[in-house]
Amino acid sequence: MKRIAIAALIVLTLGATQAGYTVKVPIDGINFQDFSWQPTDQLASSWVNQGNPTSCTNWTPREQDRYIGESFSQTGTGCQQEQIRTVQHQEINYKGVIRSVNEPITETQTISISYTKETTGTGTSWLAFADTKKLSNDWDSLDWSSQTLHAIPNTPYPNTYISNLYLNNNQLTNVDGLSVLTGFGLDLNLGNNNLTNIDGLSSLTSGANLYLNNNQLTNVDGLSSLTMLVGSLYLNNNQLTNISGLAKLLVLNSIRIDASFNGPKLAANSRFCTLNTTSKFEAGFAQKTQLCN
């Protein structure tokens, strides 16, 4: 309406001028704000999550309530999620033209959400695990080889001494559940897994054939209590850079350590170097002079 009134006044003024007289319009009758730029609605992007949620509580179900190695979805509540968006301030003039004002700015906020993630179970007894996986529960001579196991129970093994234990050809990364094991009579086979440590064997003092070949071990610190093997030691096909965990070990049969080993040597007066003769170090593998000072 104001624009129409102004236009009418202009026409009237022109007509009056041509007729030989002038119409004077009071200047305080025109609102010049109508011709300037005025703030208008800002242009904002959608909120986008930054990183993963933090500070989640009350995770359900709990890992210890699911069998070890079992994959499941777990939901936490009260999670804090950081979000970010960009905001462009704008202004508009009397013609309806909109333009941006300055550079876009960034806004952040933190919201409370629930969050669901994939995880694996950690808690169960060896017996419950065996029942669930339909595996043998002969704890004196256990064969769980080639079962595609990603983990074994982390609760103490039912026996402290065994005849045989076969866990080879799986996908294990640790054997923490064997931490009570003190000895074995024939074979402890952990070969062909993904072991990065053998700390779970820290109580082991004696045995026969110990298979740790074809893993991802860089050290054998978990064998620091092992003093005798009446059979052989297989450590080939690992990435060993330190063998200090073997310092006390006497092996009665043969020893296989990769010929590529170039880590620190054991002390010449160590039990390993004084009691294991050169004939025990198999051809094609690291020799005694390579492992002992």
3D structure, described in words:
There is one protein chain. With 293 residues, the chain is mainly beta. The protein folds into three domains: 35 residues, no CATH class; 88 residues; 166 residues, Ribonuclease Inhibitor (Leucine-rich repeat, LRR (right-handed beta-alpha superhelix), Alpha-Beta Horseshoe). It contains four helices and 15 strands. The strands form three sheets. Strands 1, 2, 3, 4, 5 and 6 form a six-stranded antiparallel sheet that branches. Strand 4 and strand 5 form a beta hairpin. The longest helix has 17 residues. The radius of gyration is 39 Å and the shape is elongated. The N terminus is likely disordered.
Could you name the key traits of this structure?
single chain, 293 residues, mainly beta, Leucine-rich repeat, LRR (right-handed beta-alpha superhelix), 6-stranded antiparallel β-sheet, 6-stranded parallel β-sheet, 4 helices, 15 strands, 12% helix, 30% strand
Briefly say what this structure is.
Helix content is 12%, strand content 30%. The protein contains four helices and 15 strands.
